[in-house]
């Protein structure tokens, strides 16, 4: 059996943020376990795949779309937003402008992805450069709350919180599925499922209300 066929769910995740904040480096660290001191700037969109096991015998294929941060590629990258189940909103902790632009990235996706609302995680990258920090943790946490996202600080260089950031987002998408907030449909590629409808995870109505992300 081909490795790519061994999954129960497929989640499409889009990487968002200004150029040079470290999106490609973070993905490379997570997917391949390596850190590249220098990478070529993404042109349009690059793709990565990683597999995780959410529960025993429940395998999820994560399909990442790594978008270019430069304005000249925005018309290309916007076309990928509508099929995103999750979004990594990333800024550089040493670059205040990249932090201030997060709301713009978030709004672009929210305006495009309808009726589904992606699950977001806000990531402050380059935490290893503490002496050069321009954005405080509490300020970033406040922004995350306003965007209905969770916040985490990472370093692609030291690998600090890299796996935790993607686990946080994957779990958020999975919980949105379990609660019924997000559902796989033939018309939407954000989430694909190989599970028969009768085997889809179900939760009591009371728990659905308690876990609602809306």
From TrEMBL:
<protein>
    <submittedName>
        <fullName>Ras-related protein Rab-39B-like</fullName>
    </submittedName>
</protein>
<dbReference type="GO" id="GO:0005525">
    <property type="term" value="F:GTP binding"/>
</dbReference>
<comment type="similarity">
    <text>Belongs to the small GTPase superfamily. Rab family.</text>
</comment>
<dbReference type="InterPro" id="IPR050209">
    <property type="entry name" value="Rab_GTPases_membrane_traffic"/>
</dbReference>
<dbReference type="Pfam" id="PF00071">
    <property type="entry name" value="Ras"/>
</dbReference>
<dbReference type="GO" id="GO:0003924">
    <property type="term" value="F:GTPase activity"/>
</dbReference>
<keyword id="KW-0547">Nucleotide-binding</keyword>
<dbReference type="InterPro" id="IPR027417">
    <property type="entry name" value="P-loop_NTPase"/>
</dbReference>
<dbReference type="InterPro" id="IPR005225">
    <property type="entry name" value="Small_GTP-bd"/>
</dbReference>
<keyword id="KW-0449">Lipoprotein</keyword>
<dbReference type="InterPro" id="IPR001806">
    <property type="entry name" value="Small_GTPase"/>
</dbReference>
<keyword id="KW-0342">GTP-binding</keyword>
């Amino acid at each position: 059996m081909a490795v790519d066929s061994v999954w129960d769910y497929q989640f499409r995740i889009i990487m968002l943020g200004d150029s040079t904040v470290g999106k490609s480096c973070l993905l490379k660290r997570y997917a391949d376990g390596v850190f590249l001191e220098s990478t070529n700037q993404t042109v349009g969109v690059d793709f990565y795949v990683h597999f995780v096991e959410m529960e025993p015998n429940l395998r999820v294929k994560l399909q990442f779309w790594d978008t270019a941060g430069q304005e000249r590629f925005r018309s290309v990258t916007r076309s990928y937003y509508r099929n995103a189940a999750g979004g990594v909103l990333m800024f550089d902790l040493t670059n205040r402008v990249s932090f201030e632009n997060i709301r713009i990235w978030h709004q672009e996706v929210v305006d495009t992805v309808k009726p589904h609302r992606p699950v977001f995680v806000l990531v402050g990258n380059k935490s290893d450069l503490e002496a050069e920090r321009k954005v405080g943790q509490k300020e970033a946490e406040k922004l995350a709350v306003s965007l209905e996202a969770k916040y985490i600080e990472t370093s692609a260089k030291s690998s600090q919180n890299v796996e935790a950031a993607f686990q946080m987002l994957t779990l958020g998408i999975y919980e949105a599925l379990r609660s019924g907030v997000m559902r796989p449909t033939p018309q939407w590629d954000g989430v694909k499922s190989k599970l028969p409808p009768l085997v889809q995870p179900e939760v009591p109505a009371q728990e659905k209300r308690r876990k609602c992300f809306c």
